[in-house]
Amino acid sequence: MKAFDAVIFDMDGVIFDSERLVILCWKVVAEKYGIENIEEACRECLGLNREAAKEKMLLRYGADFPYDTYKKEMSDLFHSRYSGGRLPLKTGVVELLTYLKEQGIAVALASSTRSEVVLAELRDGGILPFFDKVICGDMVKRSKPAPDIYLKACEELQVEPERAYAIEDSYNGIRSAHSGGLRPIMVPDLAEPTEEMRELAEVILPDLVEVRKVL
């Protein structure tokens, strides 16, 4: 791989094995209220911030869909099950973060999730100290796939985008990093790589263990 100064991580589906758990909680809510095709709807929202995800859901289910009510019920269920350090880390996370720190590589997070949740989950997971900067969905105007969050992360780290790798699992995340001029690494979680992803990503790897080997 080319020389680099920073690695910027997405969170859900890259650091935490959380996306499938969010979908499980949405399925509980969907069954209770008779919401159809919720898994498909959730997959469309991968990588999006709260506002963009709501917009997608309202487009699918109609303007009168009580998204905020259902989202809160899903979130409450999710946090009752997985908060307090119970959210599982993806394989190889700590080893990769440790390696980057040992090499003096700058590390940031660029998550579409809001700050309060991100910081709590990183703290509970015992990995917050690894990150030099944490950029969240409520700190930028436009959601992924716009490049705003990655450009802000680079700005905060004081690195050029072309000297930064972005580790992503979602299509919107890869699009965001690529359009910002970063070098995307796709580590698929729920979304299988498509032809578009193969074109946009510098490399597609099965897990963070392989990322560590490549870097």
Tell me the layout of helices and strands:
Blueprint: E1 6-9, H1 19-33, H2 38-44, H3 50-61, H4 67-82, H5 93-102, E2 106-111, H6 115-124, E3 133-136, H7 148-157, E4 164-168, H8 171-179, E5 183-186, H9 195-200, E6 203-204, H10 208-214
Count of separate structural domains: 2
What is the CATH architecture term of the largest domain? 3-Layer(aba) Sandwich
Beta strand count: 6
In terms of DSSP E residues, the strand content is 5-15%
Class of secondary structure makeup: alpha/beta
Order of helices and strands: EHHHHHEHEHEHEHEH
Strand count, sense and barrel status of the largest sheet are: 6 strands, parallel
What name is given to the CATH topology of the largest domain?
Answer: Rossmann fold
Bin the helical content: 40-55%
Poorly predicted spans: none
C-alpha geometry: globular
Q: Helix count?
A: 10
CATH class of the largest domain: Alpha Beta
CATH homologous superfamily assignment of the largest domain: HAD superfamily/HAD-like
